[in-house]
Amino acid sequence: MRHRIIVLGAGYTGAIAAGRLAKRLRPEDVDITLVNAEPDFVERVRMHQLAAGQDLKARPLADIFRGTGVTVRIARVTAVDTDRRTVTLDDGGELEYDSLVHALGSGWNTQGVPGTAEHAHDITGRAGAQRLRERLAGLSAGQHVLVVGAGLTGVEAATEIAEARPDLDVALAARAGLGDWLSPKGRRHLRKVCDRLGITVHEHTRVTAVEADRVTTADGTVLPAAATVWTAGFAVHPLARSTSLKLGDTGQIVVDETMRSVSHPEVYAVGDAALVMGPGDKPLRMSCASGVPTAWQAADALAARLTGGKVPRVPIRYFNQCVSLGRRDGLIQYVTADDRAKDAALTGRIAAVYKELICKGAAWGVAHPTLTPTRRHRVTAARPAAPARSAA
Length: 392
Description:
By secondary structure, the protein is an alpha/beta fold. The chain contains nine helices and 23 strands. The protein folds into two domains: about 190 residues, 3-Layer(bba) Sandwich (FAD/NAD(P)-binding domain); about 120 residues, FAD/NAD(P)-binding domain.
């Protein structure tokens, strides 16, 4: 019988892992099923562009994986039973697996701030970005847009909106100093861009309540906001908490250097779903820059274990942080292996082009899962014994 592999989630990490497995394993030896709630691959790193009014290329998963040997199942995962090795779907289906790749990623994190879930906008996914797009389209000149959170997502959202809608009053609320994680050159450039685009920056500002037309900060200041965009961190998908997998405090699945669960060897976790220790014994941050290498690592390790090959253990490290600042400006902050800013930074138009090439390259890798040549190997590992089922 063929070895059954289920990949949960078809974002960057899940789609790449599924394609890489199909490229390395013979289809007569494995059944690879990719489960995703939406029928298209969504370029999550471009959600701020979608919200600002730009149209993104449609990438149907059925087209991407046609002829690869990967079966695409459009459904939402409602439960994973890691003892029975089953996945339950919202369409009433149940799938059995021999190996599981958990790539359900993360969503927005309201931080428990009152009113955020009811009144703020989320751009971690397409549905939220579309809602913000509709809200922005309905705003008239002079109305206020406030982006809460000045990390990479918040900075990209604020600059994209300000460039696309110069008639709006765009502000950015930063809990610390603006770009405090950047090099001096990077901070200067970010501040220059915000000034050029007319973005008001509220530094050292913590938002404590969100209403339909305003937010309140920790010191009692009221900031007007006809639209509030909440980008203050990510929360891992909650599904893993209902399993017997070993998790970290964040709810991420604890894995070894091959992305294999330390408690369930038949389970791999990638991207934001995985608690991965990087250089300096620091957890990798939730990002595409972290996620894609974990997908490569998991797929290659699982394929090697199934085919009797050498299991790769390639250290994952950082090289740069790529930030778009609208369509015509950008910032490439070079970093150490453990993600600390170096003095060097690339700015301006060339940085925008660099970031665009990175985004296109990531999407190309998803859209062409088996195009690059590689040798498919035969599965030699014995199929694991079926777990005992409880009596009905």
